[in-house]
Amino acid sequence: MYVEAPVEVTIADKTFTSSDPYDLKLWLQRAFKSNACYRISDFKAGPARTFKAVVAVNARILPEAEWKQLETGTNPAAMRRFVETTFAGKGTLKCAADPKIKAS
Question: Can you give the pTM of this predicted structure?
Answer without folding.
Answer: 0.89
